[in-house]
């Protein structure tokens, strides 16, 4: 269901100045929507109507099924948070904590809940320790963050920001937009923002709306909107600088590109590397998600049920507005049911679900509407903390919406359809994913926020690790153990650390430390092989060998600082691996060196996160033997009654 539905919305100010003219817009849950337009185009008027600051004159706005006029101002302000362009117009209290507490206090919340929300919101925006800071002593960028924190303390469904980056320097712009993106991705917060900075839009927004003299003149994903160059310029806007550069290259240097003009540095890099005509090189092929497969299969099965005609292909629209034409297989139609499958194609991404078949069956229901159930190979959520409730099928919100929209496109409003989705072999595939760690049992998850699989995306893999932290917190674990992979995970369990507290971080030590801070974790233990974690002592927070490798150097430096003899240091320097250094140290009764190294690793990790969390470290051999730990790790474990086998 749409989160906001705007129908023929018009507004005139005194003197018959028309600010909006018959605007129609649908906003979906979890969207990141950008509103562009020159000064006076109607952006702020639209926001003021959405937030109840202005009364609706003509047309209608609905939140879900409820007209905005039927929602009290108090309830509306709780559900929709509005951050003004100038924070000085929004911040009224003398101190930071008092201002952030203003909204929750007006909601009548208990003092302890107000305190919790203030602390949590300030932590999210990176202003811990600012509680008693006078507002007038803050920088403009800090005031913006306080304004955002005040809105977040109300725990809204929608965050609306009017020119959020106006008046900020480039670093502050980047920091603020990354914060808003994190809220969108990790909390599922729907974001609507207006801006004159077209550079931001293709980097952050899923969809773009352009207003001109109160009328909506363009709408779609950033690629579609910005490649409509004539209409864009008629609206007083320009291409992002990267796009303009490629436009000039096309016009004056004879280059031709197979796709739309790139809008970001990443798109430009891929275009130049893989699709430039001088010379032509390989272009990485995109794929589509399991969510897209399920939506296409559901639409195909429904069409087959209603028409009794076999299909070769079915078309669906992704959340970003891209149309996919997917092949349909295994079509079976009976009197009361029909089913078909779509084969997952991950493009050039090394996706473990590539090639699986996603099946859907459609049957008529007595009541209007769409019901979705699952069968073999689709997992069930068993742990809290994910975007899907415990006990429900592991279909994330965006794929579920895609299925509903795809089916709705081939039925009438008074028809009802039951959809069942299943994936043969899904349980075996899921065993090689993070699903067991996340508490998703029995099969794969139907995933995807865009419907498209971007090849070779390290960022996507990093993002897939973060839900483990959410699951741990939801189960009451404010202390987590970060391990590099499954081996470290197994050895952590052997030490007596509970399963729900163990989180895989792969090579992304720094990233997962940062995400732990943002998510509200209180304490961390790094537990893993000496060869991985020793790199952290040298300040290396991406531990893949292609990035940097100083594991032996870190061990040797610690040994030298401990007064180890020259000949032993030379022997250590001859070791090919960190594992080989362990028996050398034991032979010379130098095991304490690795305990000191564990302390240095923890200190480096705490420097990375500016001391916001307590960090301890446990070092393991390949056999799972504990070869070093520091006082922090020992204290954290004892307070949690862990470490049944720690020396």
Automatic annotation (TrEMBL):
* GO BP annotations, alphabetical order: anaerobic cobalamin biosynthetic process; cobalt ion transport; methylation
Pathways per UniProt: Cofactor biosynthesis; adenosylcobalamin biosynthesis; cob(II)yrinate a,c-diamide from sirohydrochlorin (anaerobic route): step 6/10
SMART domains, per the entry: AAA (SM00382)
Chaperone among keywords: no
Pfam annotation, one family:
ABC_tran
| Highest taxon of source | Bacteria
Query: Main location per UniProt?
Result: membrane
Q: Where in the cell is it found?
A: Cell membrane
Any one cellular-component term (Gene Ontology): plasma membrane
Q: Which GO molecular function annotations are given, in alphabetical order?
A: ATP binding; ATP hydrolysis activity; methyltransferase activity; transmembrane transporter activity
Query: What EC number is given for this enzyme?
Result: 2.1.1.195
Membrane topology listed for this record = Peripheral membrane protein
Keywords (alphabetical) are: ATP-binding, Cell membrane, Cobalamin biosynthesis, Membrane, Methyltransferase, Nucleotide-binding, S-adenosyl-L-methionine, Transferase, Translocase, Transport
Q: Domain ABC transporter: where?
A: 1-238
The catalysed reaction is:
Co-precorrin-5B + S-adenosyl-L-methionine = Co-precorrin-6A + S-adenosyl-L-homocysteine
Cross-referenced InterPro entries: AAA+_ATPase, ABC_transporter-like_ATP-bd, ABC_transporter-like_CS, ABC_transpr_CbiO/EcfA_su, CbiD, CbiD_sf, Co_trans_ATP-bd, P-loop_NTPase
Report if keyword Nucleotide-binding is assigned.
yes
Which PANTHER family does UniProt cross-reference here? Answer: COBALT-PRECORRIN-5B C(1)-METHYLTRANSFERASE
Protein family (similarity comment): Belongs to the ABC transporter superfamily. Belongs to the CbiD family.
Q: What does this protein do?
A: Probably part of an ABC transporter complex. Responsible for energy coupling to the transport system.
Q: What is this protein called?
A: Cobalt-precorrin-5B C(1)-methyltransferase
Tell me the organism: Metallumcola ferriviriculae
What are the leading ranks of the lineage?
Bacteria, Bacillati, Bacillota, Clostridia, Neomoorellales
Point out the gene that encodes the protein.
Answer: cbiD
